[in-house]
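Annual report, structural modelling task.

Input specification for the zinc ion complex:
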Amino acid sequence: MYCPRCLKSIPDDKVDDISEKLKSTMGNRLLEEGKCPVCGTVLVREYGTVQKMNDIERGNRS
Ligand SMILES: [Zn+2]
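The model returned the following structure:
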């Protein structure tokens, strides 16, 4: 899963794991609801999005 706002991605097979940790350590249920635990933006599925966003970021910087 991928957060379009933080530009962070969470591997699908880790989502449950991380979600459980956030819930037990911080009471953070956002990831469990399919939202970014940092900013609350609804996460999207990755279809090469990360690569594209990285390209855009690089382009903006130069
Ligand atoms: Zn985020």
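The pocket of zinc ion is lined by residues 3, 5-6, 36, 38-39, 41 (CB under 6 Å).
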